[in-house]
Amino acid sequence: MSKQVTRTNGKVRRILHWLGIGGAAALMGIALTGCQTSIGGQTLPSAYYLEDDVQYFPSGPEFLLSNQVRAIEQYKAERGE
Questions:
Q1: In 3D, which of 11, 7, 30, 8 has the Cα closest to residue 19?
Q2: What is the DSSP letter of 1?
Q3: Nearest to 50 by CA among 65, 39, 63
Q4: Are 5 and 16 in contact (CB under 8 A)?
Q5: What is the pLDDT of residues 15-62, one digit of tens each?
Q6: What is the pTM of this model?
Q7: Which H or E run contains 43?
Q8: Is 65 left (phi over 0), alpha (psi -120 to 50) or beta?
Q9: Per residue, what are the HEC states of 48-72?
Q10: What's the rounded Cα separation, in Å, for the pair 55 and 43?
Q11: In contact, 47 and 34? CB cutoff 8 Å
């Protein structure tokens, strides 16, 4: 008994073929990207965070507009106010 391939059967095969390729690509994309984890209240981007360089930024002034205040005072002093 040979089964005759119809047009619909060919379309279904093509659709399933492309769905399979798309699914495989999606799985590869998910597998190759890091996953975000939460450890000790910290949200860590991937499992490689321990190998990352630690960056330290010293704290700046609490009043963030000190340069602007200094510029305004200098402007007022120049105008004689």
A1: 11
A2: -
A3: 39
A4: no
A5: 999 999 999 999 988 877 767 667 788 777 766 767 777 788 888 878
A6: 0.37
A7: strand 42-44
A8: alpha
A9: CHHHCCCCCCCCCCCCCCHHHHHHH
A10: 17
A11: yes
